[in-house]
Amino acid sequence: MFAKLPPMITEVVVVDGGSRDRTVEVARQLRPDAVIVQQTRTGKGNALACGFAACTGDIIVMIDADGSTDPAEIPLFVEKLIRGDHFVKGSRFSHGGHSHDITRLRKLGNDGLNLVVNVLFRTHFTDLCYGYNAFWRSVVPALDLPDVTLPRPADGRKLWGDGFEIETMINIRAVAEKLRVGEVGSIEHERIFGQSNLNTFKDGFRVLRTILSEYGRMNGRRRRGLRPFVESLRLSPAKPRSQARPSASRHVTDPRRESAPLNRTSRSRVPLDD
């Protein structure tokens, strides 16, 4: 995976959840400059929050350390950010994307949850539950993730936002805060090693609960008259399309396409969660 990181990457953040497969040791051998961060609790959501807090660059890219996401696609995400998007999500089911890993049952569940979000939030998502995203570091406060310094509940439960619902949560909050959200095609590969910790039914219901919770949260904020985060955002204006010079562009044979914003209204850092 490290070998596929494009030259534009200036910092790699590896989040370790106490793995026993020599992840940290191998990461240091392959990338001596990698920043190693220990999770403060458990769950993918907490891993990402810890990784975001450690990033120092202008752009953050989320990729998994199991080899399912392709680092060579990072320039596709960065290009859309440079051209004006605040948040760019990968899609396995549109714009030339594909998955070699998802089961039929998980695909059916993803389609159903995707439809619910598109109806409630008036979005055009084609792939809700995919964790390959990129965004400007300045929009991290809009995601309002659980404080990484909070202790883990004594009964062993995860804090809300610490589990697999994190991917749905940040996608919805980006839209609810009126950020300009784009989408690019992505190829999901079979994981190199290990088994997924995702439980189709348990985590599916948790994602549905997240959707309904976020819908209530959005409406509650509107009733209180809270302005969307985008109104306070102070990003450097994107260059006009004719002048934009992204660090890398798609190969002429790449079938993946750009898309319009999904909501109707440099430098890159890559956190890897183990």
Describe it.
The protein is an alpha/beta fold and 274 residues long. Helix content is 31%, strand content 15%. Strand 1, helix 1 and strand 2 form a beta-alpha-beta unit. Helix 4 (104-121) packs parallel to helix 7 (200-223) and helix 6 (166-176) packs parallel to helix 7 (200-223). The longest helix has 24 residues, at 200-223. The two termini are 13 Å apart.
Oligomeric form of this entry? Answer: single chain
Please tally the helical runs, counting DSSP H or I stretches of 4 or more residues: 7
Helix/strand/pairing category: alpha/beta
- Mean of all residue-level pLDDT scores: 86
Order of neighbouring strands in the sheet with most strands: 2-1-9-3-6-4-7
Q: What's the story with the biggest beta sheet?
A: 7 strands, mixed
> In one word, what is the shape?
globular
Strand content: 15-25%
Q: What distance lies between the first and last C-alpha atoms, to the nearest angstrom?
A: 13 Å
- Please estimate the helix content: 25-40%
